[in-house]
Structures are given as structure tokens and as C-alpha cells.
Amino acid sequence: MDASVARKTHRTLEPYHGVVYFAPEPREEYARIGLQGQRMGYFASRAAAMGPVSAEVVIATFVNFNPELVRRVIPAAWAIASPDDVLAARLAGIDRTLRRVLGEWIDSADAAEAADLARQATAGCYLEGHPLYAGHATLPWPDEPHLVLWHAQTLLREFRGDGHIAAMATQGLTGIDVLLIHEATGALPAGVLQKSRAWDDDAWAAGRRKLVDRGILLSDGTLTERGMRDRQWVEDTTDALALPCWEILGDDRTERLRDLVRPASKLLANELAAGVNWDVD
User: Fold this and answer.
1) Cα–Cα distance list, 248 to 84, 198, 252 (Å)
2) More reliable by pLDDT, 88 or 272
3) Cα separation, 79 vs 96, whole angstroms
4) 104 to 33, 110, 111, 120, 146: CA distances (angstroms)
5) DSSP 86-114
6) Is 64:95 a contact under the CB 8 Å cutoff?
7) Single pTM value for the model
8) Average pLDDT across the chain, whole number
9) What is the per-residue burial (b if ≥16 Cβ within 10 Å, else e) of 186-196?
10) Could you tell me if 36 and 80 are in contact, meaning their C-beta atoms sit under 8 angstroms apart?
11) Average of pLDDT values for 32-43?
């Protein structure tokens, strides 16, 4: 199995899952059950599959957010709505979003074929060492193809994410370290990751100094040669750890899944996630 095929397919499918964090419909559903603000909806909806967990579990599994940001809304969210109610709101929200944006595509043969392929791929994923994936893997499969596809991509995404965290941990990297390294690549404008993950200037500067001392960053915040090598190792290891989910399909059927979902992902990325660097080509 060619790891680059799996990686490209993951990137193409990512908007199909990730739009749940940007579209208005899920936020409306969370508000309907009493969750207050975008942050509470995000943390509660993604964590709910693990049950009414503590802030510390969310910090450990989500990794790169300021822990105080998490503690402001978790576990308070569970006093407002049960995990089951949050999950139902999440599914209702993404259903509304996909129906609005994709229209007739959700009833197409392409959607049904993509859903079947993506579900087959999830059979290669496994529980051990994948806590966030494991929580979502316990949820029942939806009935309709467009939601089967969304749930399958959720599983594939969280499985990959758990492996990514494991790879970073072997390098002794914390959440803020990872953000600083990502910023150093130039993939996003300076300040975007710091603001979105709620790190203050003092913590950001201290994190940068630590990475400079470790030889990962230069004083101007760019990557050293060692930093580039270490980052590439993490990316390559993440790809390798994610492969079991794709080997069931093989290269040709994985490419087929990518081709099937690309038109839908482009619609979702273009209409709902302006400013997010979705790589769907």
C-alpha cells in the first residue's frame, strides 16, 4: 500500500468530516440543547463519544488547546446536556449541513459507493492505543449513505489523529510545541494557531524559547534542519500508523474513494470553510 495514496485520500476526505466544526447547523443544534458558545459545542461534541469525561481526558486526547480553555467548558457541558443528547445534536447538525450544501449528491450512486468503501476501510482500524477513535467506534452506524460516509471519515480521522499524537509524544512534544512547529512551516499565517487554541503571549514565547533551546527552532521561529527532520519523521510515522485502515482497500479502491468524494469535499470547503487550508485536490 502506497502511503502517499492514503495521505492524499485523507486530505481530500477531511472537509467532509471537518465541516462539522465550521457550519452553522451543528452550532444551532448544540444551542438548542443548551450548550453555550462555539467552544463548549466543539469540545463537548467531539468528546461525547467517550462519555462524560473530565477536562483532563479532553486535554490529553485533543492535545494542543490551552488546558484552561478546556476547563472553562468541560465538565460543565455535561451538567447541561448528556453525551447522548450532544451526539444526537451533532448528527442532526451534520445531516442538515450535508443536505443543504450537497443537495442531490447525497442520494447519488457516487455517495452510496463512497460510503461503502469508507466503511470497509474502517474495518482495518483497531482500538489499542487509539482512545478518541475507540469512543467513536462504539457509536451505532447511521442508515443513510451520506451519514455513513461522514461517520466512517470521523473514525478514519480520529484513528489517524490518535496515531499522530503518539508519534509526537515519542519526540517529547507538548501541545504548544506542536503548534509552534506547525506555524514554523508557514502553512498558516502567524498568530492563527495561537489565537484559535487560546495561548497567551507569555506561554507562546516560553514555548518558542524551549524549542530554540532544544535545537528545533531558530530564534526567529523558523525550523532548524533538525526541526525539519523531526517534523518529517512525525509526519511519516503518522502516515505509517494510519495505513492499516487503508490496506483493506488497497491503492486502486482508495484512489476510487478519493475520486468519488472530491466533488463533495470541494463544495463543502468552498462554501463553509473560507480561510481554512483544505487540501482536496
Assistant:
1) 31, 39, 11
2) 88
3) 26
4) 29, 11, 10, 24, 11
5) HHHHHHHHHHHHHHHHHGGGGGSHHHHHH
6) no
7) 0.94
8) 95
9) eeeeeeebbee
10) yes
11) 95
